[in-house]
């Protein structure tokens, strides 16, 4: 066992193609979209100082979506990734929470990107929310169905930001 200290945005070892954010290293040969998502996250981290906070917020939004109903149908992608993960010998030793995080990782990165670089510079929360949901629909090629104040995206990204302190132009608390 090798213990390493890595930045919050690093979830895998690109050299060995292993997911390292689990109790067991998970080979990613069967999940190339995870490696691609990590590359995008590395690029975001080089451009934005608040990547860790945005990544945590995106992860919480995705968890809320999973618990309360998906506003955008990502179930097929997640099920497909989980099926490919199940085919690995190490899969029996991976917790359900780690499996879920791995399955949703590309969407977490997509949402992190939208939190750090919103699709509009509008300061009005409703305009920003509508532009963000439209961009999510475009990027995932699916319709974002849940619009309104009960949406975890709206609640976390717009309503709770006041509680966390001053908000920058990107919508992320500083």
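^ Assign residues to that structure.
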């Amino acid at each position: 066992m090798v213990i390493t200290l890595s930045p919050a945005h690093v979830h895998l070892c690109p050299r060995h193609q292993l997911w390292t954010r689990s109790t067991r290293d998970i080979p990613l040969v069967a999940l190339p979209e995870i490696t691609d998502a990590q590359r995008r996250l590395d690029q975001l981290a080089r451009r934005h100082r608040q990547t860790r906070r945005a990544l945590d917020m995106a992860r919480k939004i995705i968890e809320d979506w999973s618990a309360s109903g998906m506003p955008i149908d990502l179930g097929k992608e997640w099920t497909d990734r989980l099926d490919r993960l199940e085919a690995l010998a190490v899969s029996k030793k991976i917790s359900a929470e780690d499996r879920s995080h791995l399955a949703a990782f590309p969407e977490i990165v997509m949402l992190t990107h939208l939190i750090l670089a919103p699709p509009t510079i509008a300061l009005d929360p409703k305009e920003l929310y509508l532009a963000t949901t439209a961009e999510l629909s475009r990027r995932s090629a699916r319709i974002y169905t849940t619009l309104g104040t009960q949406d975890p995206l709206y609640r976390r990204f717009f309503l709770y930001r006041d509680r966390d302190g001053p908000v920058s132009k990107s919508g992320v608390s500083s």
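The chain has six helices and three strands.
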